[in-house]
Amino acid sequence: MGLFTKIQKVFNRDSAPGKAASALEVDMHSHLLPAIDDGSKSLDDSLAMIERMSSFGVRKIITTPHIMYEFYRNTPEIIHQKLDFVREALKERGMNVALEAAAEYYMDDAFIDMVKNKEPLLTFGEKLILIETNYIQSHPQLLQVFFDLKIQGFKPVFAHPERYAYLTKSRDKDTLAAYQRIFDSGVLFQLNLLSFTGYYGPQIKHTAELLLKEGMIHLVGSDAHKMEHVRIVNAMKQTRMFERIMAADLMNNQL
Fold first, then answer.
1. pLDDT for 19 beyond 50
2. Structural domains of the chain in order of their starting residue, each with its CATH number
3. What is residue 20's predicted lDDT score, i.e. its pLDDT?
4. Alpha-carbon dihedral of residues 210, 137, 229, 63, nearest 10 degrees?
């Protein structure tokens, strides 16, 4: 039995027939530009994923390629060239979906230097900037970098905080305290819809639900790298959990 089939069975138990959830019209975290990071491998893959997302009510996609010095040395120029390439293909095929691009910055020394040197950074909305860290170990300058970005007028968005093992403790009370420190500093939290399905494991699912319950959520994203991710996210839109997510005061549809 494949992972998608297992997750679909969970969705079937959790579904709410006849009750439509509010539409998530804007997806602001994905990897849909072809051959630029660990996401889409080709233009055909990109178009197929975009078409599927559009068919489920997404009117605008802000795709966010990795910028990570050791693996993906993307620049604004590289990303914009790829964006134009995909946009032209969408136009040729008559696909009416708005596609924009920002980036998912990995907090490494190269990124910290960009911030210190006030280099041009890719943002979305009103100067929102998406940032991720190592999953296991926190960066020692985490809060300082967030602070420096805010001083420069940016609004830091912490990508999928529920996935960081260094913030997860044995007791929910301690876990929330670890997140609260970051949340209270004014950093926006973006949770992955895949996390709520159990795709990354039960602990991450639990943490995502905990953050949602406590109102520690500003944005959600598919974080789609491949068609499997798109299918799973689209399936969960028929569930009570998705209704709970959409009942939160999300920023997505205002982007």
1. no
2. 3-15+24-250 (3.20.20.140)
3. 42
4. 100
The amino acid at 81:
Q
Cβ(151)–Cβ(118) below 8 Å? no
Compute how many other C-beta atoms are within 10 angstroms of the C-beta atom of residue 42. Answer: 10
DSSP states along 99-117: EEE--EEE-SHHHHHHHHT
Question: Cα–Cα distance between 193 and 245 in angstroms, integer?
Answer: 9
Task: Name the token pair of 146.
Answer: 């967030």
In this predicted structure, the answer to whether residue 152 has a pLDDT above a threshold of 80 is yes
The pLDDT-based confidence of 129 (bands split at 50, 70, 90) is: very high
pTM of whole model > 0.85? Answer: yes
Query: Do the beta carbons of residue 104 and residue 29 sit within 8 Å?
Result: yes
Contact 203, 170 (CB under 8 A): no
Q: How far is CA 147 from CA 66, 86, 163, 176, 220, in A?
A: 22, 35, 22, 21, 22
- Pick from 234, 105, 223: nearest CA to 162: 223
